[in-house]
Amino acid sequence: MVKVVKTRVEFEGRFRDEYTVVEGEPLEGWSPKSGLKIVGRPHPRVDGAAKVTGSAKYTHDVYLPGMVYGKFLRSPYAHAKITHIDASEAEGLPGVLGVYTYKNAATLGFGGAEKVFKQEVTYQGDVVALVLAQDESVAEDALELIRVEYEPLRPLVDPEEIMGLDSSKDRIVGPKLYERGDLEKGFAEADVIVEESFKTQAALHNCMETHGSVAHWEGDNLVVHTSTQSVFNVRSALSEELGIPQSKIRVVSEFMGGGFGSKFGAGEYTVVAAAAARLLGRPVRIVLDRVEENLATGNRSQTVQWVKIGAKRDGRITAIHLKGLVNVGEDGWVADLGGPAKMMYHCPNVKVELYGVKTNLVSSTAFRAPGYVEGDFALESAVDELARRLNMDPLELRLLNYATRDPVTNSEYSSKALREAYLKGAELIGWRSEPRVVRDGAKIRAKGVAGAIWWGGGGPPAYAEVKVNADGGVTVLTATQDIGTGTRTALAQIAAEELGLPFSSVRVVLGDTITELRSPGSGGSQTLASMGPAVRAAAHDAKNQLLEIASQVYDVAKERLTIREGSIFRSDGSVLCSVGELLGNLGDFSVTGRGAREPNQEGYMVNTFAAQFAEVEVDTETGTLRVLRLVSVHDSGMVVNPLTFTSQVEGGVIMGMGYALWEGRLVDGESGVVINPNLNDYLVARCSDVGEITPTYVEPEDPHTNSLGVKGIGEPPIIGVAPAIANALREAIGVRLRELPFTPERVYSAIKGINPRPTTAKYL
Ligand code: MOS
């Protein structure tokens, strides 16, 4: 039965009210105590072999007969006006099928062409021209034959500089304000006040698979293979830009090499590929290279933050004030740095003021727990300083100010086991049993802790179908993407568990709009918490139908039958038949179960939590910092697959270490040119950089989230890693570093009390 319900939908802490259509009745919730056989156990990825043998087909692997290659010419300047552009030589090169600039882009035939091809380029990497050619090397040669003259204009890239300029007020967005209680009163009540300022750098996603699409037309139907976190977002964007109905567009993302927040939209490469394919009547492939990727697809925002925290002598926090600047690039969004300041602690008086600053850099975009990674670094570093001022154990201070209800809405949490996570982590890292600091010649080892809070409760809309074939094989159909997290495997576990059929009999088909099963974007840590319950509901529906069939074939009341381990049992425990036998006797048919994600229970705040403990070793002679151990303890509700849980946490922690120690976009302050848009100069963590990581979880029962009791795990592991390392470093060297990343030069300079070399390159 179809029901329309109104529900609050949350994505990364932003809420909207939506009507949604659900089907079926709510199922009894699963919990770690439900005695599940397949869910909650480690299952290797169902697509692991396909990935390591190279047979898994990513967008980058799609090559079609007669395919045309598209390449963009991009601006070398951060801000410039094109005074002259001549593409005739490029057009004349044999093998070139078209060159497009702002002058003729309209002929490509899509809506936003003038927004993609501009005469005034406003960041390095902005699109100047497009070449379409019969192969990649011809396209690259043609790019070099396009004659462009630029009139360079003054770029503005530094938000702090812009805030001081009277002429740049139109570049400032906000303030975005949040306030509760009485801040002044809170600080007046405080015995101790800590005031600190922090800077965080822009970080680049560096997905293994760069952004890219391959588009082709079958008659008037468009098919697009693309590396995306949301096939439906891409489809609606294409429909709008190309002016064709959604039903004529198929978007496919079968395998995908990461997104981390940078692949929610269609991107100009997709729209241009589709438009060009229509124009030429041939497939068109546009795949960005690493430098383009790092210049033109967005980044985690650079921030400048001031934090002020007041507390009573006994440690109770009375007031928190956060002011932040967010470098949003050309036209990005102001990520919510204030999340942790608002939500982490039981504190009656809180104020957050955020300003976005527009600069001549690419628009910033979502990046794994956007805002919270940056804001948690500032807040949790400041809280650590507060503990020092109070002469308290920083873990005790956190537990003392623990929020038992959501401080923003005063709602109950659907579940919260952060306290247990802190205690488990403390045990594992030896917080109390081992010395906090150990000196060994020029090397010092020390430990630090930080907490993390995030979202990831998921919600509707999410729809799935579960089909059981006459041979007992199961196909789960959805359209959500597996961006590398193990979604296929987890959904197969859920379907098998609910059906009572073997895990190995389930195949999951996803990442394809042709299913027309509305599915969430793979982001906001919501995929499993949104999609999993829909798959369970669909499996439940299919199971009901199987039992109905058995009931009719064997003339037994349906209520007296259950399915376990592939067999149908009577209520007295005897076997009626195997599912294979039942279906085998019925000829060719299949059962289709349908399932929809139920709305979240009203009145509860669904958050995920983590406790991060770091042990670092500092070489005081070189400033080199190594993370020896990182214990990452999560409350993400019930864990469906401990193996994929572990790989999510390891990935997030490693990304967090990269952010803390090495990563950072370096921009020349004068020219606005990015100095390190490649993996040679932009340092992501390598295997040899990473010490021992201990991913683990506490598993609270959560009857209020969804029928699985699961919350997300995609983003929580990266939050809190940088401040845990920062706090360990502070413990080791006695000096607080307030600017990320903690490069050897910065650490060395801090130890020696000297200023790092002045340079024109800035982390922006
Ligand atoms: Mo994310 S930043 O929701 O992929």
TrEMBL record:
Molecular function via GO: iron ion binding; oxidoreductase activity
Domain Aldehyde oxidase/xanthine dehydrogenase a/b hammerhead: start-end pairs: 53-154
Keyword entries, A-Z: Molybdenum, Oxidoreductase
Transmembrane is among the record's keywords: no
UniProt xrefs under InterPro entries: Ald_Oxase/Xan_DH_a/b, Ald_Oxase/Xan_DH_a/b_sf, Ald_Oxase/xanthine_DH-like, AldOxase/xan_DH_MoCoBD1, AldOxase/xan_DH_MoCoBD2, AldOxase/xan_DH_Mopterin-bd_sf
Keyword Oxidoreductase set for record: yes
PANTHER family, per database record: ALDEHYDE OXIDASE 1-RELATED, XANTHINE DEHYDROGENASE
Protein name from the UniProt record: Aldehyde oxidase/xanthine dehydrogenase a/b hammerhead domain-containing protein
